[in-house]
Amino acid sequence: MANYYQPEIETASREQIVAWQNERLLKQVRHVWDNVPYYRKKMEEKGVTPEDIQSIDDLHKLPFLTKDDLREAYPSGLVGKPLSECVRIHSTSGTTGKRVMAFYTQHDVDLWEDCCARAIVAAGGTKEDVVHVAYGYGLFTGGAGLHGGSHKVGCLTLPMSSGNTERQLQFMCDLGSTILCCTPSYAAYLAESIEEQGLRSQIKLKAGIFGAEAWSEDMRHDIENKLGIKAYDIYGLTETSGPGVAFECSEQTGMHINEDHFIAEIIDPDTGDVLPEGSKGELVFTAITKEAFPLLRYRTKDICVLSRKKCSCGRTHVKMSKPMGRSDDMLIIRGVNVFPSQIETVLMQQGYPANYQIIVDRVNHSDTLEIMVEMAPEMFSDSLADITKQEKDLVAALKAMLGIMAKVKLVAPKSIARSEGKAVRIIDNRKI
Ligand code: DLL
Question: What global pTM score does this model have?
Answer without folding.
Answer: 0.87
